[in-house]
Design goal:
The chain is α+β, with helices and mostly antiparallel strands. The protein has helices at residues 2-15, 83-92, 158-163, 165-174; strands spanning 38-39, 43-44, 52-54, 62-66, 72-79, 106-110, 113-124, 133-144, 149-157, 176-177. The chain is globular.
Length: 197
C-alpha cells in the first residue's frame, strides 16, 4: 500500500508538466511570398499577401505576379525621359492617343512626391515579343525627381487589374526608401532600341 501511494504522489506533479498547446485555426492558405522586406534598390515595401515575388529582370528591379494563373504583372523600375513621355509610351502600348500634359492624369503620392497615375484598357502590345492581347488593363504610377524617374506598373486582364487597383495604390503609397538607394536606369527608347516595358 505504501508503494502504491508513493507512485500516485509522483504522478500528480508530472501531470502539470504537460500544458495544453494553443489551438491554431487555419482559415486560408496562400503561396509563399516575401513581405515587408528591403528590396533591390533599397526599397522597403508592403505588398499585398496575394502578390508573389519573383526574381528581378533587367528592367524590373522589384517584380511580382498575382491573379489567376499569375496573369497580372506588377513591377518597379527606373526610366529616362519625362513623366509625360513615359505615360504616353504606356498609352501607345494600348493604341491610345497621347496626353498633352501631366494635367491629363490623376496623381498619388509615392515616396513623398506627387506621381502621375496612368490608366489604360484595351488591346495591349508591349513589344519585344512580350505577351499581350485584347482585354488588358493597366494601372501605373510615374514619380519624377531631380535624379531619376521611378515607374511602378501593373498590367494584366482588365477586370483583374480593376479589382486590384486599390491594392496597387496602397502598395505605391507604402514604399519607403533607405539612404543611398540606387535603381538601375532603363535605356531610353530610340529607333534602334525598341521600348522594353
Amino acid at each position: 500500500m505504501r508503494h502504491f501511494v508513493l507512485l500516485a504522489a509522483c504522478a500528480v506533479p508530472s501531470s502539470g508538466c504537460h500544458e495544453s498547446k494553443p489551438v491554431v485555426e487555419v482559415t486560408e492558405t496562400r503561396r509563399l511570398t516575401l513581405y515587408d522586406q528591403e528590396r533591390l534598390g533599397n526599397i522597403v515595401d508592403q505588398p499585398p499577401l496575394d502578390w508573389r515575388l519573383i526574381p528581378p529582370t533587367r528592367f524590373r528591379n522589384i517584380n511580382f505576379v498575382s491573379g489567376p494563373d499569375d496573369s497580372v504583372e506588377i513591377f518597379l523600375g527606373n526610366s529616362s525621359g519625362t513623366a509625360l513621355e513615359n505615360a504616353n509610351r504606356w498609352l501607345r502600348q494600348f493604341g491610345l492617343n497621347p496626353a498633352e500634359s501631366d494635367q491629363d492624369f490623376g496623381t498619388i503620392e509615392v515616396l513623398g512626391r506627387e506621381a502621375l497615375l496612368v490608366e489604360a484598357e484595351g488591346t495591349y502590345n508591349p513589344g519585344m515579343g512580350a505577351q499581350g492581347g485584347e482585354g488588358y488593363g493597366l494601372v501605373g504610377a510615374i514619380r519624377a525627381s531631380a535624379s531619376q524617374l521611378m515607374t511602378i506598373k501593373m498590367v494584366g486582364p482588365a477586370e483583374v487589374v480593376a479589382a486590384k487597383k486599390s491594392d496597387f495604390i496602397d502598395y505605391c503609397q507604402s514604399l519607403k526608401q533607405t539612404e543611398g538607394a540606387i535603381i538601375q536606369q532603363e535605356t531610353p527608347q530610340t529607333p534602334n532600341n525598341p521600348e522594353i516595358e
